[in-house]
Design goal:
- With 413 residues, the protein is α+β, with helices and mostly antiparallel strands.
- The chain has 13 helices and 13 strands.
- The protein has helices at residues 22-30, 55-58, 68-74, 85-100, 129-144, 156-163, 179-183, 196-204, 218-225, 227-235, 267-287, 318-332, 360-379, and strands at 14-19, 39-42, 50-53, 79-82, 106-110, 113-117, 148-153, 171-173, 253-264, 290-301, 304-315, 338-346, 349-350.
- The strands form 3 sheets. A 5-stranded mixed β-sheet has the order 5-6-1-7-8. Strands 9, 10, 11, 12 and 13 form a 5-stranded antiparallel β-sheet that branches. A 3-stranded mixed β-sheet has the order 3-2-4.
- The protein starts with 13 loop residues before the first strand and ends in a 34-residue tail after the last helix.
Amino acid sequence: MRTPMPISNWPRAIALVDMNAFFASVEQLDFPQLREQPVAVTNGERGTCIITSSYEARAQGIRTGMRLREARKLCPGIVQRPARPRRYAHVSTKIMGALACITPDIEIFSVDEAFLDLTHMLPLQQRDPEWLAQMIQRQVWNASSLPCSVGLSGDKTTAKVAAKQKKPKGITVVVPWQSAAFLAPLPVTDLCGINRGIGGWLEQRGVTTCGQMRQLPISELARRFGNPGRRIWYMAQGLDPEPVITTVADPKSVGHGKVMPPGTTDRRVVLTYLGHMTVKVAARLRHYELEASLFFFGLRTDYGWLGTKVRTTPTNDSHIIYEACIEFLRDEWRGEGISQIQVTALNPTQMQIQPDLFAVEDNRKQLLNRTVDAINSKFGALSIAPGILVQRSDMPDVIAPAWKPIGIRQTIE
């Protein structure tokens, strides 16, 4: 039997840690009676769309994005659990902290995924790659009692694809010089960042699998997509040049959005949702001592997005933002059915710390906002809220896609 080659011979080593059915696994961990049961996590008690499901549910055909009513037909015994985003974020923070003990070169890709650059450890490792992947799994388990899958290879793209191959609790190692052969038969749309648009453009040029990418000149992708196009060409061949990004970039925007009941036309309901988002955006700006003078307001209708950018004086006050929302609704909306809303502060900057001695009203508003923020922080979000939100329907929080455990990115929408 051939002895596995030690990982010290690799030129570069990247691991992708992927938690298995993360939200559902946390529910089964916290509520032992749910273990080995088909569990579906939805956004709140009244949620009708499945966010994720346990592997017991997946074995019966349940998939993310499926309507709960449809899921019950496939699996009558399915157990619905409302999502608890703050609990998931807390567990994720513990896991990311444990992974940082293995290497400081960690990129938190999402609430349940992280890249680890292990390259600096290679000269000291005379073990085989499987041992290193198992050690990562043990570290996650010891920190959370939750299972994960690990992909290990020489670049980020191959590691991410590898982590999806064996779930749950799987380990897939692809030595760097075999990455191209490993990816070759896979559709290019399986790679992170290649959506239908890019995939369709590639298909028109005869590229549907990763192995076919070599026949397309890299210059053609570069002309169409710039540097991201060059990266796509390398990604498909197991040569992804992107490093593990360990820093969290300053935000270019601070926003919140919500999905609404499809076809909503009630102006009062639309204003309630917009008011809710403005309060959350303003509070988050204040928490990080930011303000903005440019805001985007968007409504998703059956015919596409209605959106506009509105300029104001630099602010983090929800009342000013909400007044701009009212004007936007009056000027742009003609009663079309709405399914989603968005409020975003663009290019936020550090707020003026020194109060203006002559702006008595502005200073009074700042003091009032700080007091409201302190009360809501102690007793729960929206314990004190504008009157427009008194009759709000249940709008559960969700984990933002850009969630990170530290800084401005630590956000639950």
